[in-house]
Amino acid sequence: MTHQKHPGANPEQAYVTVHIYDQTYHLSGGGPGSESDQQREHVQRLAARVDARMRAVAAVGRTADSLRVAVLAALNLADELARAEERLSTLKGTMDVAESASLHARAANLTYLLDSVLEEDDPAGSLA
Q: What is the pTM of this model?
């Protein structure tokens, strides 16, 4: 997987050449610079993931039709994404509850400390 300028394109626009399931694709990957290098690497990782999933689907399937393999791989990836989103949603809900409990515990502790300090400042035990 390489990056190059695509003929006839904006000179600042770089393209990433990736290979997915024995096909070559020239994808937009950003212009020059470290941020664009990260974008190109990201595109390359995504392409490698799609390629691996397509090959896995083809290995267990009975079809050589690349479009069918691509659709089945896309469904697999969509299922993986949906499950990850569900886990993230669950974790966010759990974190909110945990954070809330933590804040309540800290507030109770601070209230206790404040009461202790105020009691030390008022030897008579009254706040007048």
A: 0.61
